[in-house]
Amino acid sequence: MEKPTSTAVDLRGVSAAYGSVPVLHEVRAAIPAGRVTALVGPNGSGKSTLLGVVAGVHTPSSGTVERFHTGRPALVVQHSAVPDTLPVTVADTVAMGRWAHRGPWRRLTAEDRAIVAECMARLGIADLARRRLGSLSGGQRQRALLAQGLAQRSDLLLLDEPSTGLDAAAQQAVLDTVAALRDKGVTVVHATHDPAVARGADHVLRLERGRLTADASAGPAEPVLR
Ligand SMILES: Nc1ncnc2c1ncn2[C@@H]1O[C@H](COP(=O)(O)OP(=O)(O)OP(=O)(O)O)[C@@H](O)[C@H]1O
């Protein structure tokens, strides 16, 4: 039997806005520690915004977010959110994942370099290490951003539609990686439009028009929406 879960992040009545336009409305949810939570809902329902709130990069307009984990969350945005013109290579991009540990532009240690190489290999992009990020396809770029997120070695990994635009092999690599991290006790929250991926999660949060409309915990069988 699995041990009972504790809470990694507690969202209490969280509302968020862009300027004066409200986007999230009083979201209450407890994200379980060491589990995979899928964030689902239609386009524009607020999934990315909620990930930003959980990551601490989007300040709620009201309500509170309490994080019970150590270290900084790792947020992996969609590749389309990153400008094409950034003059960095894939290896540089992944190495940025180590900045939280070393500080920007510091020399990487041998351990950092090993982590960067391991993360690129895991996502199948080792051969692209010297290519500029802006010269890559969408799926390749997404993999570089995912590798950067993994390189942070955070215990809270937030992924915005990590499989979108990836081929079948890369999608499977992402799912395998998420499962392996969960087994190591990492809390993962990922936004997804893929029902099969959502069913594979331990916990599902559904947003519609910025409101939480379902909060489902997985049991031994299918998660039951309540
Ligand atoms: N930078 C921004 N400035 C203003 N409004 C924004 C901004 N980003 C998102 N929005 C608006 O906030 C709402 C929620 O957007 P969000 O990106 O969080 O939704 P989503 O569920 O992640 O959508 P998708 O499935 O399309 O990725 C939408 O109405 C969107 O238009």
UniProtKB/TrEMBL annotation:
Q: Which UniProt keywords apply?
A: ATP-binding, Nucleotide-binding, Transport
InterPro entries documented for this protein: AAA+_ATPase, ABC_transporter-like_ATP-bd, ABC_transporter-like_CS, AztA-like, Metal_Ion_Import_ABC, P-loop_NTPase
| Pfam name, any one | ABC_tran
Query: Which GO MF term does the entry hold, naming one?
Result: ATP binding
State which residue ranges cross the membrane. none
**What Gene3D superfamilies does the record point to?**
P-loop containing nucleotide triphosphate hydrolases
The similarity comment for this entry is:
Belongs to the ABC transporter superfamily.
Q: What is this protein called?
A: Metal ABC transporter ATP-binding protein
Mind giving the lineage of the organism this protein is from? Bacteria, Bacillati, Actinomycetota, Actinomycetes, Streptosporangiales
